[in-house]
């Protein structure tokens, strides 16, 4: 097909690089918007609202990653069906994901509304920050179906090797997002509500653009009336893959939410510092996330066609690409940490110094982060979606416990150290599982 990419043949480094670049650009765009969002709020609304964007962003990401995680899980099935050239199964999977996923995302949004105040209290949100958080999150929760649909369409496009189309829709949506942010927040004075509304509207726009692209360029992949029947095995695999990947993604943010509680308990200054540092760190994380997504699609297609040797060669190629990149990005986090935090937060003093300490400490562990991301792509693409979920559970347990134990004596350095040691634990676990699996399959 003209608008898809078959990853079961051709140069592995070229295929991985060309698949990864649009994903990376998309993630950088998203992080750029997150930083711009925080910058606009900090300049036009104030410190409390700026801190609230960090707290609310953690809760929002928990909700979003439940949905995007489920989409990531079913995208493994999409990749495997496409690699095996089984388009009828691809379309049946699309019908399941569209129908039931949209309904589930709407139900999640409604269910979370009465829980917002207790949740914010549970993570010790400062009293002056909590009203801004609630106002932001109510709008985000109501817009979850739009978020789900965009993530599903983007996952479908990635599964067939077309990462450029999803990037194009995201480009348009991000431009609209920033424009709406400036209009609603800075000009009309809607405050954090304006930022939340801009986010939801841009997600809806991205979903609409992806749907229009499918209708025009890839109609053969869209489910029709004849694809509305699904066998029990497909339903079971969809639920298992979707829930496992959703748990993996969301548990990562449950950990962040719990860590946010430790930070919030230290006051508004540390909350603002963590907000700024997290936004900056998001740029470096986007490279690892893009690598994991690209590896997952590559491994998924080659697993679907039964070429285990090419899948393994893809894994080693991904390590060769990602490890040097992680070292370069660690340096990029470390060197400009202090001025970067000061610029984004608009403040010096404790906010800038604590944020910089976080970034410089976590930079030392970034190679482990990227190694872990490659392994996530490997296990996910092979359908072993329970392995990343188990690894994340180990990570967040260590990260949360150490953060609460050490933050009062070490400040934000404690959170960074806990995160890095968590990555070390996860990579050790992944290596053990990989070696055991390879030995079993070799036998």
**Shape summary:** globular
Structural class: mainly alpha
Strand content: under 5%
Radius of gyration: 21 Å
How much helicity do the residues have? over 70%
- Taking the alpha carbons of the first and last residues, their distance comes to 38 Å
Mean pLDDT: 84
Oligomer: single chain
Order of helices and strands: HHHHHHHHHHHHHHHH
Q: List how many beta strands DSSP finds.
A: 0
Count of helical stretches: 16
Low-confidence region ranges: none
Characterize the main sheet.
none
Structural overview:
There is one protein chain. The chain is mainly alpha-helical and 443 residues long. Helices cover 85% and strands 0% of the residues. It has helices at 12-44, 47-83, 87-112, 116-122, 130-142, 144-159, 163-187, 192-217, 232-264, 268-304, 308-334, 337-345, 349-363, 366-381, 386-410, 412-442. Helix 2 packs antiparallel against helix 9 (232-264). The longest helix has 37 residues, at 47-83. The chain is globular.
Keywords:
443 residues; mainly alpha
Concise overview:
The protein is mainly alpha-helical. The protein contains 16 helices and no strands.
Topology, element by element:
Blueprint: H1 12-44, H2 47-83, H3 87-112, H4 116-122, H5 130-142, H6 144-159, H7 163-187, H8 192-217, H9 232-264, H10 268-304, H11 308-334, H12 337-345, H13 349-363, H14 366-381, H15 386-410, H16 412-442
Helix pairs in contact: 1-2, 1-7, 1-10, 2-3, 2-5, 2-6, 2-9, 2-10, 3-6, 4-5, 5-8, 6-8, 7-8, 9-15, 10-11, 10-12, 10-13, 10-14, 11-13, 11-14, 12-13, 13-16, 14-16, 15-16
